[in-house]
């Protein structure tokens, strides 16, 4: 596997730059927004892009004078994708940096750890827009921007249903982070009448994984759905493509495509599709897409992605959700307008009694140019 050292160095320097505000004390007239997120662990590409999108919108906002004259101070901590580090980082952001608002990190395991931590509970804050897809109790102190895994899976099934596909294979890596997605997948299969062609259980038993991969290829499913971390998914694809080069394989919007392609190879990622929770970030089809493109060019010297657009849009939505006036004890930081609101051409918050603002789901094909075709 060839590594682009220049690319890695640039990414590392970008991550360091994002953390520079950590050294500064908050000025009296600033709004402190904290976030613990993976900047150097297994989902660093996702985390860095998400942060870049959020920071870009806050740069735009601060250039206009902030919110009612108060600038945003955006403090980012690297949790490396580890639950214990996320809990420690959130505690420091709340207790020492005095963050008034918290954005979430990557993954359900990290999200649950933060929500269950004593320091977070004591803060009374709501965790905003984590990159997580499991279902949470409505009274949990979390407000998601993105739709759930269930909605992504439903859209994937709808897409392949239109192609006449009636049977699928499942690739599953059992873990706390994937349990909810797997449960939702099996429920959706039952509801849709989709038949199971076979299952590959990803584990350390390479002989068993190899045998199950061969069996799945022999079964010739209409498509294969992967519920696994990006490393395991990439290794599976590398082997599976030797046996089934033209079988559709699908993954979720939180698949790290850079890691996937490095491990599976260019041929391995052909015929793969991924659900997406934002429209094409490279097109200016709506005002939010165009604003994101223009502001990323102005403030960031890096390519746009689905995660930069999601971060940008989540931050723009965040401003619309802020309670006006001084909050009383026990009052939420956020107020969702009745009927939702428009954010650059897309409605969010329009589903009553939901802790997820957006229900937008699309699907995109991984193309030979190492990008997505929507």
Automatic annotation (TrEMBL):
PANTHER family hit by this protein: BLR6548 PROTEIN
Gene3D superfamilies: 3.40.50.2300
The keyword Transcription regulation belongs to this UniProt entry's keyword annotation: no
Coiled-coil region: none
Ranges of residues in domain Leucine-binding protein: 30-324
Pfam families: Peripla_BP_6 (PF13458)
Record keyword Signal present: yes
Endpoints of the signal sequence: 1-26
Similarity section: Belongs to the leucine-binding protein family.
Entry-linked SUPFAM superfamilies: Periplasmic binding protein-like I
Name under which the protein is recorded: Periplasmic binding domain protein
Top-level division of the source organism's lineage: Bacteria
Organism: Collimonas arenae
InterPro entries: Leu-bd, Peripla_BP_I
Annotated keywords: Signal
């Amino acid at each position: 596997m060839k590594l682009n050292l220049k690319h890695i160095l640039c990414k590392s320097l970008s991550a360091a730059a994002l953390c520079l505000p950590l050294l500064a004390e908050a000025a009296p007239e600033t709004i402190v927004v904290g976030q613990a997120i993976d900047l150097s662990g297994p989902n660093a590409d996702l985390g860095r892009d998400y942060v870049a999108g959020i920071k870009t919108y806050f740069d735009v906002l601060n250039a206009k004078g902030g919110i009612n004259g108060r600038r945003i101070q955006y403090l980012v901590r690297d949790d490396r994708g580890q639950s214990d580090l996320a809990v420690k980082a959130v505690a420091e952001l709340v207790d020492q940096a005095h963050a008034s608002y918290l954005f979430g990190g990557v993954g359900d395991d990290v999200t649950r750890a933060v929500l269950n931590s004593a320091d977070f509970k004591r803060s009374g804050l709501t965790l905003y827009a984590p990159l997580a897809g499991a279902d949470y109790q409505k009274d949990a102190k979390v407000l998601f921007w993105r739709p759930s895994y269930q909605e992504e899976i439903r859209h994937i099934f709808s897409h392949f249903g239109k192609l006449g596909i009636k049977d699928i294979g499942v690739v599953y890596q059992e873990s706390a982070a994937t349990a909810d997605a797997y449960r939702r997948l099996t429920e959706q299969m039952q509801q849709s009448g989709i038949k199971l062609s076979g299952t590959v259980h990803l584990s350390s038993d390479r002989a068993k994984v190899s045998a199950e991969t061969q069996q799945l290829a022999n079964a010739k499913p209409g498509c294969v759905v992967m519920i696994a971390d990006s490393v395991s998914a990439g290794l599976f694809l590398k082997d599976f493509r030797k046996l089934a080069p033209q079988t559709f394989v699908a993954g979720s919007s939180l698949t790290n495509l850079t890691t996937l392609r490095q491990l599976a190879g260019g041929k391995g990622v052909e015929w793969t599709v991924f659900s997406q929770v934002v429209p094409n970030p490279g097109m200016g089809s709506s005002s939010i897409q165009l604003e994101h493109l223009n502001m990323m060019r102005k403030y960031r010297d890096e390519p746009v992605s689905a995660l930069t657009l999601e971060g940008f849009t989540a931050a723009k939505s965040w401003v619309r959700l802020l309670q006006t006036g001084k909050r009383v004890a026990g009052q939420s930081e956020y107020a969702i307008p009745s009927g939702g609101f428009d954010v650059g051409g897309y409605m969010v918050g329009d589903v009553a009694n939901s802790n997820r603002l957006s229900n937008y789901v699309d699907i995109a094909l991984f193309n030979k140019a190492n990008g997505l075709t929507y």
